[in-house]
Amino acid sequence: MTAPVWRASGVGWRWDAQWTLRDINLTVHAGERVALVGANGSGKSTLLRVLHGLLKPSAGTLQTNPHVRQAMLFQRPHMLRMSALRHVALGLWLSGLPWKEAIEKARQALTQVGLADLARQAAPTLSGGQQQRLALARACALSPQVLLLDEPTASLDPRAKREVEQLISRYAANPAQAEKPVTMVFSSHNLGQVKRLATRVLYLEQGRILADLPVHEFFNSPLETHYPQAHLFLQGETL
Length: 239
Known about the structure:
Radius of gyration: 18 Å
Strand order of the largest sheet: 5-6-7-3-8-9
Strand content: 15-25%
Order of helices and strands: EEEHEEHHHEHEHEEHH
CATH architecture of the largest domain: 3-Layer(aba) Sandwich
CATH superfamily of the largest domain: P-loop containing nucleotide triphosphate hydrolases
Number of strands: 9
Largest sheet: 6 strands, mixed
Distance between the termini: 42 Å
Structural class: alpha/beta
CATH topology of the largest domain: Rossmann fold
Number of helices: 8
Mean pLDDT: 90
Low-confidence stretches: none
Number of domains: 2
């Protein structure tokens, strides 16, 4: 057995006096696709940021496997004032790749997400779906073994949602230059997307994990006895 990607024990995070995460106990192994579901404010985005190292736990311990490369995709990615090509190449260059090689690899990444024809266009002028595809190209160009995604299709129109989801699924299934299976943790309000992409579902409420189940069990087994809050959430979401 390889070391887990993450092992959290009693992890909490607070902003001033308010706890956004409470008593998170969680182990994620390589190759898992973990979906975080729950209402707005339940702690999904905070948990992603803690796992990625953007936020330091205020309580408990978080062990992260130092031998895996991580990348994170945000709901509204920040677009630098430069061309789409340079936008991708910059991250590669900062990771240590010579600029000429970074440009070539960035071109390949843009081709993979269908943006080759827009390589010279300024990143901030792209449409919302194009910007999210650009952000995905920037993340996947680094060949991460771990991909974290915070509502990656929430602000997109239906066509763009399908395109971005297909790209995410394709990369997770067949990552370029990845030595190990891609581990994916993502938050989503789209339950159809969760069914399609996830192997495991965590239901969060008020910063706590109240259900942790394989995706088939979460959607197809009776939850009201052991996971009443998750049952009520699904009832409300599927009415």
